[in-house]
Amino acid sequence: MSTEIRNRIKKNVANLESWAKKFQIDAYRIYERDIPDYPFIVDRYNDKFIVYDRSIDSIDSREDKQQHFPQLIDALKDLFGASEDQIIIKRRSRQKGESQYEKTAETNRTETVREGEAVFKVNLYDYLDTGLFLDHRLMRDKIRKQAKGKEVLNLFCYTGSVSVFAALGGGHVTSVDMSATYSRWAQDNFRLNGLDPSQHVFVTQNALEYLHEPKDERFDIIFLDPPTFSNSKRMDESFEVERDQVPLVDACMDLLADEGVLYFSNNKRSFKLEPVIEASYRVRDITASTIPKDFRDPKIHRVYEIRRKSTPGL
Ligand SMILES: C[S@@+](CC[C@H](N)C(=O)[O-])C[C@H]1O[C@@H](n2cnc3c(N)ncnc32)[C@H](O)[C@@H]1O
Predict the structure, then answer these.
(1) Residue 158 CA: which ligand 1 atom is closest?
(2) Is the pTM of this model over 0.85?
(3) Selecting from 3.40.1160.10, 3.40.640.10, 3.40.50.150, 3.40.50.1260, what CATH number does the domain 135-307 have?
(4) Is residue 182 within 6 Å of ligand 1 at its C-beta?
(5) Span 46-66, pLDDT tens digits
(6) How many whole angstroms from 202 Cα to the centroid of ligand 1?
(7) What would the pLDDT profile of 78-114 be if each residue is shown by its tens digit?
(8) Residue 135: how many other CB atoms lie within 10 Å
(9) For atom 4 of ligand 1, which residue has the closest CA?
């Protein structure tokens, strides 16, 4: 076994364990390409480990490097006493569009993980993503803290983890996702947290259509976290976050209460905000304050806080 990779993971976990315990965080990143020869990512979910191997796309597969993946797996077994079943390998390269959210297996095995005040249902085996985006942990907490008495809209809500925190913080939450599976999963997450889904709103619809339907209501907080690319049988046109950002942000701003705030997040590494958005609204790039302690990659996501220019006191 390579002691280099073993020692690095051991050191990372030693640095993170007391923090995770203090904030009651069961799921966190314990290794992120720290050693260039081991370009892998490992996320811990209690006693299970998700290992992302994108090396097929990104690094050379010279023979001397081919042992590195098994060495990482051996290190996890040795350090944590993990069995094969507790180490889940995600090998497929990141897909564009809907296929990223399709099933890759059919175990239907789910478990729960705690994150501070909340618990979430995750499925570590069947999809490329687990049901919880760990990089948005701080964003969830930020929204929880501001949600009391507020109308909150979560667009592209996925499994509703931001919605759960908004509701736990005392907000009334509308969660929109095109997928019926994720909409049900979001409602399961509400129930898991003692929240009654019927007291909130779940919309299974293309978020782009939802945004353009006439509405009387206004929202105090909007969380907009679209995929980089989206197209599906249920959509007439494709969506690309950078290409389509201006009408998307404008449509959200039309739904925002006068003193409301829009958090616009995305994962496109090369994303650039259109200057017209900065000219039209008061925009702050808050990315740095939203990257959690266990992530090393400053470009894992990007978040803009967007308000109306006329908001008093700013
Ligand atoms: C939260 S977003 C993407 C999150 C993250 N930023 C990323 O790129 O992986 C993923 C969710 O968007 C949903 N989704 C994709 N296109 C959609 C659309 N046009 N309208 C509503 N939901 C959509 C998917 O069903 C999925 O639950």
Answers:
(1) 27
(2) yes
(3) 3.40.50.150
(4) yes
(5) 999 999 987 655 555 556 667
(6) 15
(7) 999 999 999 999 986 555 555 566 677 778 899 999 9
(8) 17
(9) 227
